[in-house]
Write a structure and sequence with these properties.
alpha/beta; 3 domains; six-stranded mixed β-sheet; 12 strands; Four Helix Bundle (Hemerythrin (Met), subunit A); disordered C terminus; Rossmann fold; Gyrase A, domain 2
Length: 443
Amino acid sequence: MNNQTIYALSTILGRSGVAVIRISGPQALSAIKFLTDIDIDNIKPRYAYFADIKNQSGQLLDKAVVLYFKSPHSFTGEDIVEFQTHGSRAVINSLLDALSSIKDFRYASAGEFSKRAFYNHKMDLTQAEGLADLIDAETSEQQKFAVRQMEGSLKNLYDGWREQLLKVLAHLEAYIDFPEEDIPQDTIQQIENTVFKIKNDIQQHLNSSNIGEAMRDGFRVVILGEPNAGKSSLINALTARDTVIVSDIAGTTRDAVDIHMDINGYPVIFTDTAGLRDTNEEIEQKGIQIAYNKANDSDLIINLYDASTNTPQQIENVDNSKVIVVANKADKLTAEAVTKLSSSGIITISAKYKQGLDKLLNTIATDIKNRLTADSGLLITRHRYREALANVVNYLNMFNFNKEIELSAEDIRLASREIGKITGFIDVDEILDKIFGSFCIGK
């Protein structure tokens, strides 16, 4: 990270009531000095000033609210200045041009404000990624989980594990430095118990399936069924518009079509697929294979069938535990037939008349909710977390006292480094601090 001062538009570019332009770096106050009449020698941090904004030629650009956040009490940990101007393109562009003319100022690269916050220890990588998820959140549940991560729920969990491993490593390093001293049996047992507990805790964390990634990216619900079962009609009914083509001609849908929805705060991606049937048509065969591939990668499968002419078909080569059987065209059935299907656990709907959709959506939302546990505020939200934690478990599985202590210490060191990769803090000097803080070396 260099010492240049960066600036950028922090709100959307376009017509709006207010636009916020943020400046961060050692010369941030220069922006106030050159563009306003505010006395920077007596400026109060976190105090709102209303000032004329002029370029270096003296031209009035706008009247704006000016805020100053003094280092280290700012988002980035550096001096920050914010100009809250009117949100027209002309005002925004003229102010950005004025800032570009100031020495050592440059436009920020993508994510650079958050990157500087990370380098200045205002947040770790999990919190930074939680912030990114919060910005991208489209549903209330995504918002809730992103806020928890941004506030440090995962950071505290991972740092706790790493702290315990560093303590274990400090003990091992001490005995490596003093090989003439035998490790007491109670110390060996304490270390083994600590490693065993951490390994089990991480394994349980990994066993949360992919619920965290699904919460961030969307739960995938794939609709499977024979041609003309009403899969495309169901998609159109859910979205209340003609999202996909509906036709009585079998094989109309060839490719998978994704539709994003918010169901009770949960992000859900419905996928319309090609009708399942035996066919010699090459393109349709590829569409059917895509349907099966999508189903195997999904969180839920809707097995949709035409209840007016068929009975539910068993779908082969899929996980039946995630299948919801749905009978379509219930409007063509007698009340007695609908009651019988419902009592057998089958959801009855009419995509044509939009009947039974609420029950289907509530069933999906309940299934998602049931996957969440009391610890679901600590979800693995990214594949890189899962990969690193799996490596931690592997290293801890290799750890034992039946080999040279240097090799045992290396297992713990590598495990702690894998956790450090997640949070972004990897510093071998921490081990020395642990040694001197825990032992009276040379006593």
